[in-house]
Amino acid sequence: MDLDKAGQKRLLDLNEIEKIRAMAYDNAKIYKDKTKRWHDKKLPPRQFCPGQFVLLFNSRLKLFQGKLKSRWPGPFQVVRVFPHGAITIKSLKDGHQFKVNG
Asked: Per its UniProt entry, which superkingdom is the organism in (predicted)?
């Protein structure tokens, strides 16, 4: 009988640990959202104008870190500005145009 009670108590403890882990995950997510909102509120809005020269951040280099490799190819020229921060840029090397999020 004592082993059955110990086994049941262990199962209850495992369930409690799972509940505590889920609560900790939710709290971490809430904290992350709050800090992101605070950080984004402090950032000044970026305004791009046609004809302006910009650099492009290459996010693929985050995966394959190169110490001396530049993460900012460019320069590019802003061709058109769309609502909600999207812009069309043109490469000065080959004239290729593409749309990016500003």
From this structure: Eukaryota
